[in-house]
Amino acid sequence: MNINMKKLALVTASLIMAGGAMAQSTATGTGTSNATVIAPITITPVNTLEFGNVVAGAGTVTIAPAGGRTDSVAALSPGTQIGTVRAATFNVGGQGAFTYAITLPTAAVELKDSAATPNTMSVSAFTVASGGTGTVSGSVGTLAGGAGNLNVGATLNVASLQVPGAYTGTYTVTVAYN
Question: Looking at the whole model, is its pTM more than 0.70?
Answer without folding.
Answer: yes
